[in-house]
Design goal:
Blueprint (H helix, E strand, L loop, with lengths): L1 H41 L1
Length: about 45
């Protein structure tokens, strides 16, 4: 039983880390996209 708890806890931590990483990457690409659009509009 304890093994299952440890497994699910580590899985939850891993998923949280992964989703955080993906979210940061998505936000970064969105900001890059916005800045390039801004450059196109201004330029």
């Amino acid at each position: 039983m304890l093994l299952y708890v440890q497994f699910y806890t580590s899985l939850a931590v891993y998923v949280k880390y992964l989703s955080n990483l993906i979210w940061k990457r998505l936000l970064g690409s969105c900001k890059k996209y916005q800045s390039s659009l801004h450059h196109i509009w201004v330029g």
